[in-house]
Amino acid sequence: MVFFLLREKGNVSPRGLERVLIRAVLFFPVTRSRDKDNFTAVLAKWTQDALVRAGVIPDDSAGHCTFAPVGIVTGIKPMTIITIEAVEEVAA
Q: Which residues are CB-neighbours of 86 under 8 A, at least 6 positions away?
């Protein structure tokens, strides 16, 4: 779905990235306690699988993909924002 929306807007998903950092922020209209871990596991798996299927990263192992803890914001319109950042390899 993400890549369909990108293409619909005229954007093209990058291909062949060796390593990425994924961040997600969830917005909820109601202020209440939420367990970030419940959202992180599902969002990480779905996003990583989509990136592998689209050929953006070679696989979803920790060596190719890092998923930052999910951020949660309450009191505004519900939405999810996911950003994917290419990570440069650190020279040894």
A: 14, 17, 19, 20
Contact 68, 48 (CB under 8 A): no
What is the pTM assigned to this prediction? 0.76
Distance CA 41, CA 28 (A): 18
3-state helix, strand, coil in the chain (%, to 5): 25, 25, 45
Pure H helices in 15-82: 36-53
Can you tell me the distance from the alpha carbon of 24 to that of 68, in angstroms, rounded to the nearest whole number?
7
Other beta carbons within 10 Å of 65: 23
Give the C-alpha separation, 71 to 92, whole Å.
32
- How many other C-beta atoms are found inside a 10 Å radius of the C-beta of residue 44? 19
Q: Which residue has the higher pLDDT, 80 or 3?
A: 80
